[in-house]
Task: inverse folding
């Protein structure tokens, strides 16, 4: 799982490194009149390709990490190569459904925030659905989530609790290293590496929780066994 997570960690680290140098250069500008439009656009154009690569590979990494777990759970030989291939095969379906889910969450947030949070909780099992069930998407997520609402809510709340815990601990380390937030390039680079490390660790820890949450919801909705985790052809 760590090897798979490193696939998308490389461009993520590149974003942090480039951002560290850009921040260092921006800190030299003291007179607001010296700031031009290009001073904002040029750094964004540099970071944008790495950011897009990180987003794309993060989705492939999520799918591939879950596939590693499925290989293990179903007794198949563990293959990082096969997991990444499966992640690439299911990337475009996941991308399409993630866009739909993102729009739903955005609209929900505009309507008093709570609907957006609810949609976010439901769509948190979208990745294993896309990996393991062909032709299914957001509708399937609602179906499984409501099979036993209380149990599903508890599972997903635990997952979000881990996300918050990782973010909190990372914040403690970052604050300890750079309390003022104005450290030099060297500290900024170290912080970028640290942040990437936390991202990889959170992916390794949380992915099993996502898969077991999905499996538990299916078991509460329909007859289910571990063998059903084998991706449909």
Result:
């Amino acid at each position: 799982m760590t090897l798979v997570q490193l696939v998308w960690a490389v461009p993520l680290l590149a974003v942090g490194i480039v951002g560290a140098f850009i921040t260092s250069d921006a800190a030299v500008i003291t007179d607001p009149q010296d700031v031009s439009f290009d001073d904002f656009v040029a750094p964004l154009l540099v970071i944008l390709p790495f950011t897009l690569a990180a987003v794309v590979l993060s989705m492939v990494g999520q799918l591939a990490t879950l596939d590693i777990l499925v290989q293990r759970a179903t007794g198949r030989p563990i293959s990082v190569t096969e997991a990444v291939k499966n992640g690439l095969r299911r990337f475009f379906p996941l991308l399409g459904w993630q866009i739909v889910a993102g729009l739903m969450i955005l609209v929900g947030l505009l309507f008093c925030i709570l609907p957006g949070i609810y949609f976010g909780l439901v769509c948190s099992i979208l990745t294993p659905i896309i990996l393991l069930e062909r032709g299914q998407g957001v509708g399937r997520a609602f179906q499984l989530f409501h099979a036993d609402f209380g149990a599903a809510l508890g599972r997903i709340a635990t997952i979000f609790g881990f996300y918050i815990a990782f973010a909190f601990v990372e914040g403690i380390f970052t604050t300890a290293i750079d309390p003022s937030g104005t450290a030099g390039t060297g500290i900024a680079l170290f912080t970028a590496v640290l942040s990437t490390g936390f991202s990889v660790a959170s992916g390794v820890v949380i992915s099993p929780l996502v898969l077991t949450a999905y499996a538990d919801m299916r078991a509460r909705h329909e007859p289910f066994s571990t063998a059903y985790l084998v991706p449909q052809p």
In short: The chain has one domain: 2-229. Residues 2-229 form one domain. Residues 27-31 have pLDDT under 50 and may be disordered.
